[in-house]
Amino acid sequence: MQTVPPIAAAPPARPQPESPRDLFVSFTFLALQGFGGVLAIVQREIVERKRWLTPEEFLEDWAVAQVMPGPNVINLALMIGDRAFGLRGAMAALAGMLSVPLCVILVLAVLYAQFAGNPQVAAALRGMGAVAGGLIAATGIKLIPQLRKHPLGFGVCLACMAAVFIAIAVFHVPLAWVLLLGGCVLCTWTWWRIAP
To answer: What is the pTM of this model?
Structure first.
């Protein structure tokens, strides 16, 4: 009598957005948390909590979102929405990132016009700038371990990060030139390293 080999269990289904409505609600929630910058919150929610993307996929998608014209987080939302539900998903994610936050911004703009001359309001806004800088720095630091898997090697990636920082912060090279030149060089170098 022949024995039938056991059937391997299928890997658990990867978490995905359940519907365009889920994308809209999720991105609305993310956008409403993102005062001063939503990148840190998007990384935590999309990668760590919802697990729609792995850390590697997030890093790759974020790199693409950075070089596309327009706001980075909007570009990322469009890519995630499109990947899940095509054009409907992309539009749902975009609407989630923009509609409710737009209403909040309009209300805040009216309030700010009333209280702009108040020194306490100006001081509070300067304090929020420091918080936003901290959020962005924290997200960047959390992404660094993913560079260990990069084909160019961890040391080269860190050197490139330092070169980009120096070019922008010290020498005031426009971001477009840094992205164009650095992006072309590093994409070509990476392609050369992984090409068969």
So the answer is: 0.64
pLDDT in tens, 43-85: 888 999 999 999 889 988 988 998 888 888 999 999 999 999 9
The pLDDT tens digits for 22-46 are 999 999 998 888 765 677 788 888 9
Cβ burial, residue 76 (10 Å; 0-12/13-18/19+): buried
If you write DSSP's letter for every residue of 40-55 in order, what string do you get?
HHHIIIIIIIS-SS-H
Q: How far is CA 9 from CA 6, 12, 109, in A?
A: 9, 9, 55
Domain residue limits, the chain = 20-149, 150-196
Q: What tokens were used for 122? A: 């100006």
Amino acid residing at 126 = R
Placement of tokens 């609407």 in the chain: 95
The count of other CB atoms within 10 Å of the CB of residue 195 is 6
> How far, in Å, CA of 68 to CA of 77, rounded?
13
Distance in angstroms between the alpha carbons of the first and the last residue of the chain: 47
